Amino acid sequence: DKRHGITYRQETKLRLVSSGLIMAHLTGFSAISAGGALQQSPWFRANPLTSVLVVPLAIAFLVALGKITECLRKHKTMQDGDKDWQETLWDEQVKEGENDVVSLAGSFLLVQ
């Protein structure tokens, strides 16, 4: 089934990639805001070394959340005993989005 020269799979991937990218950036900016607020709290802003501690804390928190959501995705995708192409694509895009979030937040918090 082709509409406008693209297949259903191509259209599905395009929609998933574009919406995933937007959500990853929204989440990344939220993580930047939360980490920035933490860096500006009295204890962390006392000196540059304590301010930099927010970076590994934020990264560890985001990675832990990623592992939790990975377990949830695995549980959801294996409910029927098989992981189809749509579930595989979804899983890949979420992992890429999680990497974007960690990269955005970690790099910004490091240079702030």
What does this protein look like?
The chain has helices at 8-39, 48-52, 54-77, 85-111, and strands at 2-3, 6-7. It is 79% helix and 4% strand. α3 (54-77) packs antiparallel against α4 (85-111). It has a two-stranded antiparallel sheet with strand order 1-2. The termini are far apart. The model has no long low-confidence stretch (mean pLDDT 93). The relative contact order is 0.17. With 112 residues, the chain is mainly alpha-helical. It contains 4 helices and 2 strands, in the order ββαααα.
Keywords:
single chain; 112 residues; mainly alpha; two-stranded antiparallel ribbon; 79% helix
Give the topology.
Layout (H helix, E strand, L loop, with lengths): L1 E2 L2 E2 H32 L8 H5 L1 H24 L7 H27 L1
Antiparallel strand pairs: 1-2
Brief digest:
The mean pLDDT is 93. A hairpin with a 2-residue loop joins strand 1 and strand 2.
β content, as a range? under 5%
Looking at how many chains there are and whether they match, the oligomeric state comes to single chain
Category from helices, strands and their pairing: mainly alpha
User: Stretches where pLDDT falls below 50 for ≥5 residues?
Assistant: none
Radius of gyration: 18 Å
Helix coverage percent: over 70%
Strand order of the largest sheet: 1-2
What is the makeup of the main sheet?
2 strands, antiparallel
Average of pLDDT: 93
Count of individual beta strands:
2
Distance between the termini: 50 Å
Please give the count of helices: 4
Order of helices and strands: EEHHHH
Envelope shape = elongated
